[in-house]
């Protein structure tokens, strides 16, 4: 797959509530084209809800979501938006239909968007995530957790989006497999000029992959900072410091590709 023209994303005044409970309160941030941006916080902080609101899976009570750097601004949840913005979910066991082969899982988004060169794209997508064409006609239960997440990544990338939303993409995997998938994602971002927005509760994972990050607590933004500042403990809020202390073995390392 060829490199994309990068697009960024701007979220302004985002507010999401469910039956009166405010899950995200007036959150704003901007991700530059080609940047990798992280959102961190404890469980229930609203970070995954932000991603779901971006792609139209959670209702926005107020606020705007728009692409940056392109000529068009399709509405979140629209077909045109999903062509440019795709999501990789946390659970590789739950995000793949158990009764569909890998071939069908990868062909479905192409059919929905009317893309005809399915054969070529499926083979190329499998190759890009480090799996051969021998995986095409396997079912999810015949794959390991890491292989399933690679298939989920291939499915997200097969439409050649410019923005990838990553919702805890390695938290359900063993530690050794986590590193492999993170390095794969970083390699794909560089080669395909992708913009990443990644949610995680693990500061080490976010700083491995992201250049900047937003810290959330109870639906609100605590602070925005560079990953290098986090690594050097240049943080302004006590909550961010408590997250650092809770993240055992936290340190920033360069990705090995």
Automatic annotation (TrEMBL):
EC number: 7.4.2.10
Topology in membrane: Peripheral membrane protein
One term under GO cellular component: plasma membrane
Catalysis performed (reactions): glutathione(out) + ATP + H2O = glutathione(in) + ADP + phosphate + H(+)
Biological process, per Gene Ontology: transmembrane transport
Residues in ABC transporter domain copies: 9-243
Compartment annotation: Cell inner membrane; Membrane
Taxonomic superkingdom: Bacteria
Pfam families per the UniProt record, alphabetical: ABC_tran
Keywords: ATP-binding, Cell inner membrane, Cell membrane, Membrane, Nucleotide-binding, Translocase, Transport
Family: Belongs to the ABC transporter superfamily. Glutathione importer (TC 3.A.1.5.11) family.
Quaternary organization: The complex is composed of two ATP-binding proteins (GsiA), two transmembrane proteins (GsiC and GsiD) and a solute-binding protein (GsiB).
PANTHER family linked: GLUTATHIONE IMPORT ATP-BINDING PROTEIN GSIA, TRANSPORT ATP-BINDING PROTEIN
Protein's name in the database: Glutathione import ATP-binding protein GsiA
Species this chain originates from: Polaromonas naphthalenivorans (strain CJ2)
Lineage: Bacteria, Pseudomonadati, Pseudomonadota, Betaproteobacteria, Burkholderiales
């Amino acid at each position: 797959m060829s490199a994309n023209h990068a697009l960024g994303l701007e979220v302004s005044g985002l507010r999401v509530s469910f039956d009166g409970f405010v899950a995200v309160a007036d959150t704003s941030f901007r991700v530059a084209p080609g940047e990798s941006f992280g959102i961190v916080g404890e469980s229930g902080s609203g970070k995954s809800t932000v991603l779901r609101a971006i792609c139209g899976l959670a209702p926005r009570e107020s606020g705007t979501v728009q692409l940056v750097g392109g000529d068009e601004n399709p509405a979140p949840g629209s077909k045109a938006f999903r062509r440019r913005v795709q999501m990789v979910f946390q659970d590789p066991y739950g995000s793949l239909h158990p009764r569909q082969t890998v071939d069908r899982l990868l062909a479905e988004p192409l059919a929905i968007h009317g893309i005809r060169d399915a054969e070529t794209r499926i083979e190329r997508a499998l190759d890009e995530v480090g799996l051969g064409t021998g995986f095409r006609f396997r079912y999810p239960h015949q794959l390991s957790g890491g292989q399933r997440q690679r298939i989920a990544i291939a499915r997200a990338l097969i439409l050649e989006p410019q923005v990838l939303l990553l919702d805890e993409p390695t938290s359900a995997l063993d530690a050794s497999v986590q590193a492999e998938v993170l390095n794969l994602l970083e390699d794909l971002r560089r080669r395909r000029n992708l913009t990443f927005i990644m949610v995680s509760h693990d500061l080490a994972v976010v700083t491995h992959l992201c250049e900047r990050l937003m810290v959330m607590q109870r639906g609100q933004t605590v602070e925005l900072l560079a990953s290098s500042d986090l690594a050097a403990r240049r943080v302004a809020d006590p909550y961010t410091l408590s997250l650092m202390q809770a993240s055992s073995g936290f340190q920033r390392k360069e990705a090995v590709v």
